[in-house]
Write a structure and sequence with these properties.
Layout: H1 2-18, E1 20-28, E2 31-39, H2 42-63, H3 71-78, E3 84-85, H4 88-103, H5 113-116, H6 129-135, E4 144-147, E5 152-155, H7 168-182, E6 188-192, E7 195-199, E8 207-213, E9 216-226, E10 230-235, E11 240-243, E12 246-249, E13 252-253, E14 258-259, E15 263-270, H8 273-286, H9 288-296, E16 302-307, E17 312-314
Antiparallel strand pairs: 1-2, 2-6, 3-5, 4-5, 6-7, 7-10, 8-9, 10-15, 11-12, 13-14, 15-16, 16-17
The structure holds adenosine-5'-diphosphate and magnesium ion.
Adenosine-5'-diphosphate binds next to β10 and α8.
Length: 320
């Protein structure tokens, strides 16, 4: 009996002594991934992080515009000619995206890509005004026809292209946290580029999530203590080039086909990372007034904006 107790106590001490934080970084979906999990056993921690990385690779294969065999590329090749049957996951994300367009007066619109594909930020290439004018009529979420009975998508304009860059990382972060929960993990952080989701707290303390200074990557503009929520930041510094003193960056106004200039950075805080991601892009395009108005009428979601004069603005629930 005594021996058994000693053995049991040893097991207990070994098990809890092995509980620890597991942290890993990777580059997936062309962006920086950072994952932290608290796991009682080291094998679980390693397995949990691997599960997240595998999930991110899966979604990248499905949604990347740079992979010819992705479902997204297939849609862009075919949907203007015939209805294309798609996965339920893709269908749900397209439906959510179209709904967000309607709620944001078209500021968030995945058909921005009809003009967006003419920009090559790394090559410092932008379309001429003539190119933009020619392609602009293809930008409208109203061109996307979704048929729930057949889970299919059809574009009723020949030149429509879609891109999920404004929402796919939020989606991947949401699905990753769900997988971690299913593995029994209770404390975790998953970041994909500007999208972060937190599961639980940091063992009795909040997580501290920084919003970087848009003009100095070494500096945080704000640091927020957060628990069990998510935050996404859209900035004009992720992909851009400068020419003749103008910054050409990757968040485009669907109305003009050109970069939006009212703000430098938008962060949205709320439970669902997919919505944070889409809303941060939308508010970036809408600018301070319309953007804050939108978030003030969206229950459970808050906004922090740095405008183009580097002044900070907050939605109503963040103002004391
Ligand atoms: P980040 O890449 O900085 O995390 P976002 O979440 O704002 O930021 O995503 C920017 C991406 O969203 C762009 O690279 C592009 O793929 C896509 N995008 C750009 N403009 C729009 C828009 N008006 N509506 C929807 N998606 C957009
Ligand atoms: Mg976004």
């Amino acid at each position: 009996m005594k021996l058994f107790i000693i053995f049991f106590a040893c097991c207990f001490i070994t098990a809890s002594a092995q509980a620890e934080w597991h942290t890993e970084n990777a580059t997936i979906m062309g962006t920086n991934i950072h994952v932290e999990v608290w796991a009682e056993q080291p094998e679980l921690g390693t397995h949990a992080i691997q599960t997240v990385f595998t999930e991110m690779q899966r979604i990248n294969q499905l949604m990347s515009p740079y992979i010819d065999s992705s479902e997204l590329s297939k849609i862009n090749r075919l949907a203007a000619h015939q209805p294309v049957k798609i996965s339920q996951e893709m269908f749900d994300l397209l439906q959510l995206s179209v709904g967000l367009s309607a709620e944001t007066q078209g500021a968030f619109d995945i058909t921005f890509a009809s003009v967006g594909f003419l920009y090559h930020y790394q090559k410092k290439h932008k379309p001429t005004q003539q190119d933009i004018d020619k392609a602009l009529s293809a930008i409208s979420y109203k061109h996307i026809q979704l048929d729930p009975a057949n889970t299919s998508v059809y574009f009723n304009h020949t030149d429509v292209k879609i891109d999920l860059g404004g929402i796919a990382k939020g989606h991947v972060v949401d699905t990753s946290i769900e997988l971690l929960k299913n593995l029994g993990i209770q404390h975790a952080l998953v970041t994909a580029g500007g999208d972060t989701k937190l599961l639980g707290d940091r063992l009795g303390r909040p997580w501290h999530v920084g919003i970087r200074d848009p003009r100095n990557k070494e500096r945080q503009a704000v640091t927020l203590p957060l628990i069990n929520t998510a935050i996404s930041t859209s900035g004009d510094y992720e992909r851009y080039f400068e020419q003749d003193g103008v910054r050409y960056h990757h968040i485009l106004s669907p109305k003009t086909g050109k970069s939006a200039y009212q703000v430098q950075s938008v962060s949205i805080i709320g439970k669902r990372s997919t919505l944070n991601d889409g809303l941060s892009t939308a508010v970036f395009v809408l600018g301070v007034k319309d953007g804050i108005d939108l978030i003030n009428r969206t229950p459970g979601y808050d906004a922090i904006i740095m405008d183009n004069q580097r002044k900070m603005h907050y939605s109503k629930d963040l103002v004391l």
